[in-house]
Design brief:
single chain, 147 residues, mainly beta, 5-stranded mixed β-sheet, 37% strand, disordered N terminus
């Protein structure tokens, strides 16, 4: 009886494969752990502790970072924290938008209170807009920038 060999070839370049759906990392650094203090007043978000005097609205961390975010409301009414999705710019067959996990969103926080959440930032780099979705908070915005 003759012996039959079967040759099987594999390729990583198939459109939509797991490898082609992994985004490029611009700075070569992925992950880490970061604690972020964010205050919200009736006028703006600010990165830093309550008495930091910061007016910086944008949070910057590495992509895929394990984030512990504490939101403190120094305003006179409740404010929330919601991160929007962005376009992923990945090839066809891959997810076309990138979103923070729902664990990153914080429901309205009463004045004088703080809420802490933990989550892992997305792998796709970019500037993810965030805002308060409480009525009348249209100007409470910032960006969560992933490098």
């Amino acid at each position: 009886m003759p012996i039959v060999f079967v040759l099987v070839a594999c390729s990583n370049s198939t459109s939509g494969s797991a490898d082609s759906c992994t985004p490029d990392d611009q700075d070569g650094v992925i992950g880490g752990t970061m604690a972020v203090l964010l205050t919200v007043s009736d006028d703006a978000f600010a990165v830093g502790g309550v008495d930091s005097g910061s007016t910086q609205r944008n949070i910057t961390v590495q992509n895929a970072t394990n984030v512990t975010l504490t939101l403190t409301n120094v305003g006179t009414k409740p404010h929330s924290f919601v991160v929007d999705c962005i376009k992923s710019d990945l090839p066809a067959g891959c997810p076309q938008k990138s979103c923070f996990p729902k664990a990153a969103d914080i429901p309205p926080v009463d004045p004088g209170k703080s809420v802490t959440v933990k989550f892992t930032a997305p792998l796709v780099e970019g500037a993810y807009p965030f805002h308060s979705d409480v009525d009348g908070d249209d100007d409470l915005t910032g960006q969560f920038v992933l490098n």
